Amino acid sequence: MSNRLIIFLKALVHLACLAPIAWLVWHFWLASTTVPDALGADPIAAVTFFTGKGTLRLLVISLAITPIRRLIPKLSWTIRFRRMLGLYAFFYACLHLLTYVWLYSSFSWAAMINDITRRRFITAGLTAWLLLVPLALTSTTWSIRKLGGKRWQALHRLVYLAAIAGVVHYWWGVKSGVHTPFAITVVLAVLLLARPMLSYTARMSREKTQAGKVPLSR
Amino acid sequence: MLIGKPSDIPSSEITPKSVYFNRRKFIAAAGAAGAAALTGSRISRIFDPETDVRAGTKLDTVKSPLSTTGEDLTPYQYITNYNNFYEFGVEKGDPAKNAGKLQTRPWTVTVEGLVAKPKTFDIDTLLKLRPQEERVYRMRCVEAWSMVIPWVGYSLSEFIKQCEPLGKAKFVQFLTLADRKQMPGLSQSSINWPYSEGLRMDEAMHPLTTLCFGLYGETLPNQDGAPVRIVVPWKYGFKSAKSIVKIRFVEKQPHTAWNDQAPEEYGFYSNVNPNVDHPRWSQKYERRIGEPLLKQRRPTLMFNGYGDQVASLYNGMDLRRYY
Q1: What is the rounded CA–CA span in Å between residue A163 and residue B180?
Q2: For the CA atoms of A52, A54, A56, A60, what is the dihedral angle to 10 degrees?
Q3: Which end of chain B, N or C, is less surrounded by CB atoms within 10 Å?
Q4: Are residues B85 and B21 in the same domain?
């Protein structure tokens, strides 16, 4: 994969992540002014789901990179997209949080503290966002060097917890009897289970080749 | 029982539907295309031109003195494209998309249970039983959004009198259609079908409680509960059962669909009450559908603003306990 192609693809990813936000901001403005139905009948709910689902989708895409690289070594260049996807997931998560703080709570601390302590779906959502904060803060190359690869990696495993908390937040948020979070849950489960499974098969094949090598070395 | 008698809304204050539609048609279509292209989301459904067609039959109505005044009516487009009617799917746009198949003729409503004589009413008999009144009511969904809807119907009490319930009857249960052939949503959620709702006898007899056949001067669109539904304006929307096929008079509090599904979230009474939160969100505020985005949020009123008329029904009751 040439550098020029990577730069081109990165530009595409930026566009794919920013265009929906540009669309959302434009329609938010329309819905606040001349076209009340620009975001549908319930625009506040629409913004909430738009940013929330966007966060989960981006998180899941960023979590797909490691298993894809291990399954298809030819695609190992995709690692160069993981940081930006993760940061965009965090950006969408921030917009989702802003929706709650501004449109639902009108910046009322009392209302938010009441929610956070008493509503488990909000607690779960806030937990997911808080787990993403240190990851976004340590996303720079400088941080990786400063922390050291091993420690950095250990820290960034928090993303698994963040994604799980995010999906739990989604399930607890929808009405009972509604199964819309099902698809993203299955995808996340597959991606999380793929990791130990791939490690296991890799260890098996390594042992096999080593077992084969032993007699030769003697 | 005191019933407020607010004055009529002059017809000049009601925006005609056609004005509303044309003004937004173009920009809505453009927005829908953009939304669909970029997000693949279902926001665009609300603009689906097919759901724009109104097949309603005009109803002759007289204005009801029970109407709520001083509120802008929610445009027809929202009332008919933003629905919770799980028999046709769980997304808000699903009922408008899927309810077209519903056959509303022939249609009968069976009255049974503790009545002098069980009887089955034809829908056209019900329509003509009493003069049809236009009743503007606020509608507050348990999900914290609200509308103002010009319903058409008459007081359920007028119908109940015809049913001759026995003295033992303390509650009324409403059972709605659950037909897999016509209702693709039945398999999408784990609700205990058929949808069941209920009212205490005095609630059902209250003049505000409406046996409803239409909105905006026409017969009900299928997605709003055609051909006949209940409207109880001081309770959360799910108490107002749609597409009713059976009315049963019973002695004990009947089971209700959402209460079966999640008893801690949806009580039998479910009176609109800003002081009793839903376990997952506050009920202090609501979003008024159709208003500009930043003006949607408004405080929720006790009994949805109908306290003067209905609060006395609950004298001495702990409304936190009987939520």
Answers
A1: 37
A2: 180
A3: N
A4: no
Q: Are residues B86 and B40 in the same domain?
A: no
> Which residue on chain A is closest to B291 by alpha carbon?
A36
**Residue B137 shares a structural domain with residue B22:** no
Average pLDDT value over all residues in chain B:
87
Distance of alpha carbon A153 from alpha carbon A160, whole angstroms? 12
Lowest mean pLDDT among B187-196, B222-231, B242-251: B187-196
Low-confidence ranges of chain A (pLDDT < 50): 217-218
Domain, as residue range, for B278: 56-314
Instruction: Write out the residues of chain A at the interface with chain B, using a CB-CB cutoff of 8 A.
Output: 19-20, 23, 27-28, 30-33, 35-46, 49-50, 53, 103, 106, 111, 114-115, 118-121, 172-173, 175-180
Q: Do B137 and B231 sit in the same domain of this protein?
A: yes
- In a mutational test of the B interface, the residue from A176, A178, A184 whose CB has the highest number of chain B CBs within 10 Å is A176
- On the question of pLDDT at B7 being above 60, the answer is no
User: Is residue B224 domain-resident?
Assistant: yes
Smallest Cβ distance to B282: which of A27, A111, A177? A111
Residue B9 resides in a domain: no
pLDDT digits (tens, 9 = 90+) for B106-146: 999 999 999 998 999 999 999 999 999 999 999 999 999 99
Quick check: B41 and A49 CB within 8 A? yes
Are residues B86 and B173 located together in one domain of the fold? Answer: yes
Please write the tens of the pLDDT for every residue from B28-87: 444 444 444 444 444 444 444 344 445 589 999 999 999 999 999 999 999 999 999 999
Is the distance from CB of B44 to CB of B32 less than 8 angstroms?
Answer: yes
Domain boundaries, chain A: 3-209
- DSSP 8-state secondary structure symbol assigned to residue A19: H
pTM confidence score: 0.81
Residue B194 and residue B132 share a domain: yes
DSSP states along B200-259: EHHHHHSTT-EEEEEETTEEPPGGGT-S-EEE-TTB-GGGS--SEEEEEEESSPPP-HHH
DSSP letter for B268, please. S
Beta bridge partners of B297: B287
Residues B292, B145 within the same domain: yes
Does an H or E element contain A184, and which?
Answer: helix A182-217
Provide the CATH number for the domain around residue B229.
3.90.420.10
| Pair B145, B23 in one domain | no
Give the ranges where A72-157 is alpha helix by DSSP (H). 82-98, 109-118, 120-137, 141-147, 149-156
